Amino acid sequence: MSDNQEFRKKLIARAFSFARMVIAFVDNFPNKRSAWIITDQLLRAAMSIGANITEAQAASSKRDFINFLHHALKSANETKFWLGLSKDIIDNKERADALLKEVAELANILGASITTLKDKRSI
């Protein structure tokens, strides 16, 4: 397996693990309307990160691949917003901070990957 394939495999696994952590996190939210909305949006955004990275693996071109990674990055940034907001409705703020740290790292990896791929494309 090439370094590139290994990197992609690890990134998908990390995004999958992150989505599972978010699912467990929201299961402890209070049962009220505001929490439902935050839960719904947070789950959609967090799961979209891994879904777009996975979908990128079947991209028809390098441009298409970059586009899927861009969507994953946008979802990571949206996830940051919803995690930040969730801190107002939960008691376990440390867990939210740990998830914010992980999604920030995922976003940094995605951003760096996009930049690298765009630079290689212009050569």
Automatic annotation (TrEMBL):
Pfam family of the protein (one): 23S_rRNA_IVP
Gene3D superfamilies with a match to the protein in the record: 23S rRNA-intervening sequence (1.20.1440.60)
Keywords: Ribonucleoprotein, Ribosomal protein
GO cellular component: ribosome
Domain of life: Bacteria
InterPro entries with a match to the protein in the record: 23S_rRNA-intervening_sequence (IPR012657), 23S_rRNA_IVS_sf (IPR036583)
Keyword Ribosomal protein: yes
Alphabetical list of NCBIfam families matching this protein: four helix bundle protein (TIGR02436)
PANTHER family given in the database record: FOUR HELIX BUNDLE PROTEIN
Protein name (record): S23 ribosomal protein
